[in-house]
Amino acid sequence: MNNIYFRNISRFFLLILLQVLVFDNMHLNGYINPYIYVLFILLLPFETPQWLLLISAFLLGFGVDLFSDTMGMHTAACVFMAFCRPGVLRMVFSSKDYEVGITPGINDLGFNWFIRYSTILVLIHHLVFFYLEVFNFHEFFYTFGRVILSTIASLLLIIISQYLFYKKK
Fold first, then answer.
1. Which residues, listed in sequence order, are joined to residue 28 by a DSSP beta bridge?
2. Would you tell me which of 28, 96, 126, 159 could form a disulfide with 32, CB atoms 3.0–4.6 Å apart?
3. Residues facing residue 32 across a β-bridge
4. CA-CA-CA-CA torsion for 98, 49, 82, 101, nearest 10 degrees?
């Protein structure tokens, strides 16, 4: 049990550091911005209470905002993503019975399940973040293009990290 807490706390700080030091400096033509730090919310155990999920998302977004000078946009996007997570889990959960101890990752639930789950949540995060950044609908299609391309880039990095760092049991 303590191993789960240590792993999640380590993942929390590692993903914030990676986001701030590496991925915030990757602006591919100013159009694509990968956000890998959302992987923390995606990989939290199913048993995580909603209140803890929201507080963790708030702290995660606040940590990235603190170093990125984005004035609460990451915080708002993370909290909304965490708020939507239980509904998305109910929507994409397969007919497989829920087992205690499994995590929402590729290793435990497979590639197809994980890609549906993570695509929906990352898209929600990016929609909130990028439209808060622009804060108008004047450039709706330009912003929507940024959302789609950044979602694809983020998902590619998330899937690569799943295969690199999470071994089969």
1. 32
2. 28
3. 28
4. -40
Tens of pLDDT along 115-153? 999 999 999 999 999 999 998 878 889 999 999 999 999
Closest CA to 125 of 66, 60, 51: 60
Mean pLDDT along residues 67-92 = 93
For 58-94, the DSSP string reads: HHHHHHHHHHHT-TTHHHHHHHHHHHHHHHHHHHH--
Q: What is the pLDDT of residue 30?
A: 73
CB 118 within 8 A of CB 42: yes
Q: What is residue 98's DSSP assignment? A: P
Q: What is the pLDDT of residue 97?
A: 46
Token reading at 71: 């004035």
Q: Which domains does the chain have, with CATH numbers?
A: 2-165 (1.10.1760)
